[in-house]
Structure formats: C-alpha cells, structure tokens
Write a structure and sequence with these properties.
The protein is an alpha/beta fold. It is built from 13 helices and ten strands. Helices cover 39% and strands 12% of the residues. Strand 8 and strand 9 form a beta hairpin. The longest helix is centred in the C-terminal third of the chain and has 22 residues.
Length: 380
C-alpha cells in the first residue's frame, strides 16, 4: 500500500512538472474516425469521413519515428474502429514494440477474430481495452449492435489463449456506466473476473449537448465532441438512480479484494462525483494536464490539444517536427483559456481525472488510506 501510494504521488509530481513545461509524454492516434458500433451515447459513427485522406503506413512511419525522438513513452491507437485499418494498426504496434513504446488499443470486439487476435499478440500489443457495457438482457440498447456481451467474453478467452504464459497484452475491460446498465454493474465485474481479465475500468460517462457546443469556442473554433446522444433523450441519472449507483460503486470498491489479482479502477467516479454531478452529467473542476502532455493526432496527421477539438490544429506532423508544434503559440492560447476555466465544454469532461496532477493525487492517496483504515477497524 505504501509503495503504491508513493508511486502515485511521484506520478502526480511528474504530471504537474511536465504539464508546466509543455513536455509531451504520451500520444493518442486516431487511425480513422470510421466506426462499426452504433452507440446511443456517441456520434462518431454518424460523422462524415473521407477515408482517402487517411494517412498510409508510409506516411505514419516517419511520424512514429518523430514521436520516438521526442521521447513519447506510450501510444494509444484509437478510432472509430481502428480494426477497419488492421494492417496499419499491426504495423504501428510492431514499430512501437521494437522501439520500447507502450501500446494501448481500445476495441468494441466486433472484428476480433482468432486470426486478428493472434496477429495482435504476435505484433507485441501491450494493453487491449475491451468496451464492455451490456449484459444479454440489454442486447444492443447501448452499443447498437447485437451480441456485444458474448463477443467480449469470447474475446477475453481467445486473448488469454493466444498470449499463453505471457502477460501481454494486458486485458482491460472498460464499462461506461449510465442509467441503462448501472444496475448490472456487479454482474459485469463478476463476469469479467470469471472470464480472466486483468482489469475492470469502471467509467462515468461524458455527455455533451448542442447548446454547450454552441457556447464554447477557442480562438473562434468550436469543439466537436463525439460523446453526444444519438437518441432524443439524455443519459443523465435521476436522483434515485444516482443514489443507488453510488452505493453500488462503494460495494464493489470495498470488496475489490475478492477479485484479486484483477484490479478495479474508478478514477473518474469514486471520490470525484456526487449525486448532483450524476443527475447533471457534469464533473467538478480540476486542473487539466491532458492538453499539455498528451499528443492527440488525427487520421490526417493534425496535432490537436484535445480529443474534442478536431478542428483546432496546432500543426501537422507530415510537415513539421513535434518540437515545432508542441507548446507553440496556438497551443498555449488553448491551454491558457482552459486553465482559466473559460472552456464551458470542460465542465462535462471526465478526461482530466485520468491524468491527475500533484495535489489531486495527494488527496486521492489520503482518502484511500483513510478508507482502508476505517474498513480495517470495522472488520476487526
């Protein structure tokens, strides 16, 4: 416990230091904006796209070399559905594995055949994120496609089979919780554990509205968040649902030792949101280090300061070195407005809690330590 807490505090110090100095540490690359899911809480699949403008492997390879030379340590290979560009994805994973860059790959599991999973393992994938939001009773009401539950369970089994005695790729299941699935959360955690996953990441959802987009701009550029409802209604919790959900979170967290060695992560929920946040789908203010340390790259090579501002370009990596782009005036103007809490969209964004700076990290460590002592005293 002490070593974990000390490690967390050291990470928080590094995050704050790198953020202050505009030092990039990690990258998120959109291989494509195209998607095979039809999620009710995400409009990525509804976006007009131009596949012919997506960069090829020949164009991406020097970009990856540039990221390596700028000391990028980890890369998340993102989409849309990145498996729509499977050969590119495998080439990127192999490059990163050969150059000691950690790789993270989120997927909806729709294209995870035996052959594809074997190829991902052989390429050296570090972590695979499996979206896991439904139980059989829901059958497509969240993901918009049938048999999501069965595909994820089979994918976990196949990944474990093909990785053999290796720990790579690490299997992390991500459940984005809403009023549609919160009542099944304990079942999902148990199912993931029984299937043999290494981690269950329980995430609060972000939901942006057209009204919020309209009143947000940075240097005249409006955001383009993809977490927007594709149905007519909101995914906000009622008071009763929020109270029940918070109790479920507490129950899972306080009994998490039962799922060892599988870890459970609730970094943007527990100790962060209360009932009012859940009924409004908002998040409290916290200094965001994402835009100063995490390099977001579009399928066309554009560098972005945020996942939700695809039209706010800092520069393009097919033409410029990251050193020239990162921390330039355009970048600093964005971050100054964000750090002054003048971007309304940020009130609905949970990303800032995935990358905690020093003080919030200390608060989290102290809270967890106090909870552990209280729990021990109650059980003895």
């Amino acid at each position: 416990m002490f070593e974990y807490s000390l490690g967390s505090i050291k990470r928080g110090i590094r995050k704050s230091y790198f953020s202050h100095n505009y030092t990039p540490t990690d990258a998120i690359i959109f291989l494509t904006y195209r998607c095979t899911s039809r999620c009710s809480a995400c409009n990525m699949w509804q976006r007009p796209v131009d596949p012919s403008s997506e960069l090829s492997w020949t164009e991406w390879k020097p970009i990856l070399q540039n990221l390596k030379h700028n000391n990028i340590k980890n890369i998340e290979l993102f989409g849309g559905d990145a498996l729509l560009r499977k050969e590119l994805l495998l080439n990127m994973i192999s490059f990163c594995d050969q150059n000691n860059i950690g790789t993270f790959f989120p997927t909806n599991s729709s294209s995870l055949t035996d052959k594809t999973i074997q190829a991902l393992v052989d390429a050296g994938l570090g972590t695979i994120y499996l979206s896991f939001d439904e139980v059989p009773e829901l059958d497509g009401s969240i993901r918009g496609v049938k048999r999501h539950y069965e595909r994820v369970i089979k994918s976990i089994e196949k990944i474990r089979h093909y990785r053999g005695s290796s720990t790579k790729p690490r299997i992390s299941c991500i459940t984005t919780v809403s009023p549609l699935n919160y009542a099944f959360l304990k079942n999902l955690t148990q199912t993931i554990y029984d299937a043999g996953a290494d981690e269950h990441m329980i995430r609060g959802m972000s939901e942006f509205t057209s009204e919020l987009v309209d009143k947000t701009n940075v240097q005249g550029i409006k955001p383009s968040p993809y977490f927007m409802s594709t149905t007519k209604g909101s995914h906000a919790f009622t008071d009763a649902q929020a109270e029940e959900f918070l109790k479920i979170l507490d129950d899972i967290w306080l009994t998490r030792h039962r799922f060892f060695p599988m870890s459970i992560d609730m970094c943007n929920l527990r100790g962060v949101v209360d009932k009012d946040h859940l009924t409004d789908l908002s998040y409290p203010y916290q200094s965001c280090v994402f835009a100063t340390t995490q390099v977001v790259i579009s399928p066309y090579g554009n560098v972005l300061p945020c996942l939700y501002f695809k039209n706010y370009h800092l520069g393009n990596l097919t033409r410029n070195d990251l050193k020239v782009i990162w921390g330039n005036q355009t970048h600093r103007l964005f971050c100054t407005q964000q750090q002054s809490n003048k971007i309304p969209l940020c009130d609905k964004c949970s990303i800032k809690f995935y990358h905690k700076p020093f003080l919030p990290t200390v608060h989290e460590v102290l809270r967890n330590g106090l909870e552990k002592m209280i729990h021990i005293s109650k059980t003895h």
